[in-house]
Amino acid sequence: xxxxADEATRLxxxxxxxxxxxxxxxxxxxxxxxxxxxxxxxxxAARRDLETFAEWAEGPHDKSxxxxxxxxxxGGWPYRLPKGRGSPGExxxxxxxxxxxxxxxxxxxxxxxxxxxxxxxxxxxxxTFKANAAMAYAEMHGPRRAAKRGGREIRFLMCxxxxxxxxxxxxxxxxxxxxxxxxxERRVLYIHxxxxxxxxxxxxxxxxxxxYGYGAAEAVQIFNTLHSARIECGVGGPGQFPHSQEQLEQVxxxxxxxxxxxxxxxxxxxGADKTVFDTCLVPSPPRTKNLGFKRRVTEEIVAPQS
Length: 306
Description:
- It is globular and about 40 Å long.
- The longest helix is centred in the middle third of the chain and has 16 residues, at 126-141.
- The chain has a five-stranded mixed sheet. Strands 1-7 form a two-stranded parallel ribbon.
- It has helices at residues 5-12, 43-51, 53-56, 92-104, 126-141, 144-149, 169-184, 199-212, 216-227, 245-255, and strands at residues 18-19, 64-68, 72-75, 109-112, 155-158, 189-192, 297-298.
- The protein has one domain (5-298): Protein tyrosine phosphatase superfamily (Protein-Tyrosine Phosphatase, Chain A, Alpha-Beta Complex).
- β2 and β3 form a beta hairpin.
- It is an alpha/beta fold.
């Protein structure tokens, strides 16, 4: 896929800063702050995990990272990338190695946010990725029927969104409910778009809000901290979340359970499984630490525009 002049301009330009409202900047830490309730945290363990995140957050391939330790990986396209949009292109061998590394990390659910026609060429497209993932998974874990009996079959979920934008709130709310159910079944998720920054960032930040009760600003800060553990961040747009104000605003609506997301109140069914997440939650990164970000989300409070 050839990179257009507009795409090259977007990729090379310095990203804008985006603002978060006061209502979504605070962390929700009391059990009564929402009906589903956040995890009761071991703050000491959380701080220790932050101090060592560089040791565990690096993902199974260069363009990925762990978001929830041992449970959720966020990253770029999980198979071959065509040339363009910051990528020099990947060979069949590189694509297959990337996919196998993801599967060997324990992933058995893929959630994709690319649009249907976004990657059209047959060697790179979604249907080719899906077929190769199913075949490689069967080689590792046996026939699908046997794996399904143990609830370990490979699964593919989709919630298409435009590059740099957002999809309908109703669609995202349904998808988040699906992901929470997958996590509750102790499955390992790989959530991805093209580069694994913007659209994947919406979902990743939303999961941090729903599972742990974070406000939007803090979820974004944590997402970007863990994202910095990647070896390569230059594919698919600016290597940090968000890619647009509307992406950030959608995370705010999730965090505040507004509109379509109100139905997610109490939808986190992980129950006792929440203890699995206690040691992988990380607090806000130290403000003095330079993580090399090209973009930041300002926490400055400004009056809403009339």
